[in-house]
Amino acid sequence: MPEILRQPSAFLVFLGLSALGFGVLLVSLIFGELFDFMSHDGDFDHGGGPSFLSSRVLSVLVTSFGALGAIGVNSGMSIPAASGMGFVGGVGCAALVYWFARFLFSQQATTMTTSADLVGHKARVLVAIPAAGVGQVRCQTGDEIVDKIARSESGEAIPENAIVTIGQVLGEIVIVQPEKRSSES
């Protein structure tokens, strides 16, 4: 066994911690969150975003602790002083990673259109709506085109290709009213 491994120095211990943290960080970046398998019954609500106890944040803390501790010992600091510097720097780096991950999480959006989003939008009748019956309308919201079964609000017939306004949504059926034509105003 090499001499350096028989009597490890503080420098090598700090470097080993840094390497261990960096290895865990690489594994979690490739395979995803490592601590997902640990379920807990307590409610530690953190807004639905990443946790400060996620494997990525903790691995950055350990990596920074080890690297800054090794730098401190190599520059002549005592082990407690280098450990303190590593801890403060590690918490600072982990906090930066945590806040950046929270920022990225808050930027997520969905393009899913819900039925409630259709209220007030204009639609075109695809299948004529008979008096007191149902037909079909097509509405475009953003880049998404939605086809829905429709019923007339007043119960009157609405012809194919007429422009209507969606007044309300009842389950999968939309209640529509025909647009007023300029000659009717």
Query: Low-confidence spans: pLDDT under 50, at least 5 residues?
Result: 39-43
Please provide the count of β strands.
Answer: 5
Distance between the termini: 96 Å
> In angstroms, what is the radius of gyration?
31 Å
Question: Structural class of the secondary elements?
Answer: alpha+beta
Note the overall shape.
Answer: rod-shaped
Walk me through the structure.
The chain has 185 residues and is an alpha+beta fold. The protein folds into two domains: 3-106, no CATH class; 115-178, Nucleic acid-binding proteins (OB fold (Dihydrolipoamide Acetyltransferase, E2P)), CATH 2.40.50. The chain is built from four helices and five strands. The protein has a five-stranded mixed β-barrel with strand order 1-2-3-5-4. Strand 2 and strand 3 (144-152) form a beta hairpin. Helix 2 (10-31) runs antiparallel to helix 3. Residues 39-43 have low confidence and may be disordered.
Notable features of this structure?
2 domains, five-stranded mixed beta barrel, 185 residues, OB fold (Dihydrolipoamide Acetyltransferase, E2P), rod-shaped
Quick recap of the structure?
This protein has helices spanning 3-6, 10-31, 55-74, 79-106, and strands at 122-127, 134-141, 144-152, 163-170, 173-178.
Give the SSE layout.
Blueprint: H1 3-6, H2 10-31, H3 55-74, H4 79-106, E1 122-127, E2 134-141, E3 144-152, E4 163-170, E5 173-178
Parallel strand pairs: 3-5
Antiparallel strand pairs: 1-2, 1-4, 2-3, 4-5
Helix pairs in contact: 2-3, 3-4
